[in-house]
Amino acid sequence: MNIKNTTTKIVFLIFLSLLNFNLIHSQTNKASIFGELFGASTTFGIHFDSRFNSETNWGGRLGVGFTESKSQDFFKSAPERTRGWSFPIAVNYLLGKNGHYAEIGIGVSYGLYNCKYHDKVGHEIEESKSGSFGFLDLGYRYQRENGIVIRIGISPGVALDMYDEDGKTEHGVDRAAVIYPYISFGFNL
User: How much is the pTM?
Assistant: First the structure.
């Protein structure tokens, strides 16, 4: 798999999805865009979030995140460095009023990663991998109708197994259940 071309195509599709999502939900006054550190983005991401209509606290978000890690427990093969793109999508519910909300969400993130290793002789080996993880968002959101958006909370996540055509586990993201903190800053559209 050529991760560069695949990543470019997926980033373009995410951009088109975000644009379409914005056009469909532009009648609501609770659409926002924000940058997220950690959480479902793993390292850093940009997300679009909107209520499904102006009468509900139910909504969703789409995003793209960049990941860089030197942790050897991200994949079963223990790479020395993992770098890649993730694409979180989630539904969420805001409980509260007057700009102060408890945020509860559930989602899945698919990622395309480039991993580097050194073999026993010292040669550098590069490998492309992909994988998914499910996550929850549990936090506080400050969001005024015409202003800034601040989110802070925790995002428990767990790897989702992938299987080949013979039903054998292909081990994408292998990380056991983790809890990532998150913090986001953005603005309403």
Answer: 0.74
